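Duplicate of #3305? Posting structure anyway:
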């Protein structure tokens, strides 16, 4: 072992040989690396399932949202899923129309017996999607109602 001694008797030693300490630390580090099991991290993802469904029926000039007395929502005559899923699908269709080069008109044709809550939800989705060309269809039926 190489240790340097002080120049005079009784002086403290100035340098300590750290090579054995480093050797011990490296051996311990290698032992820890070997004994610690490898950590496998997995992230569970719900990936989309490909479906062969036809693309949504979006017309280039005019699209119609209609309802029936039971509260079902229809897009160009085709029924949308019931409940919140139907509103989500409606929002997706509206977003697709916003991405078209020439935004088509959107008409709302509610059934007179449809609950107001259903129409209110539809109007909220239309407002959130920021459709530029929107109108009600069939209002002439109510011209003599009052």
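Output from current build:
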């Amino acid at each position: 072992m190489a240790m340097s001694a002080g120049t005079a008797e009784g002086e403290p030693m100035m340098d300590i040989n750290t090579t054995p300490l480093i050797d011990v630390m490296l051996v311990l580090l290698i032992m820890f690396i070997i004994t610690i099991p490898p950590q496998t991290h997995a992230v569970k993802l719900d990936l989309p399932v490909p479906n062969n469904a036809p693309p949504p029926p979006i017309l280039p000039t005019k699209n119609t949202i209609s309802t029936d007395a039971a509260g079902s929502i229809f897009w160009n005559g085709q029924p949308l899923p019931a409940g919140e899923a139907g509103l989500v699908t409606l929002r997706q269709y509206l977003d697709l129309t916003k991405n078209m080069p020439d935004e088509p008109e959107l008409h709302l044709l509610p059934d007179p017996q449809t609950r107001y809550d259903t129409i209110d939800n539809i109007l909220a989705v239309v407002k959130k999607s920021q459709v530029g060309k929107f109108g009600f269809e069939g209002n002439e039926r109510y011209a003599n109602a009052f």
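Confirmed duplicate; merging threads. The helical segments are 19-35, 84-98, 116-129. The two ends are 110 Å apart (CA to CA).
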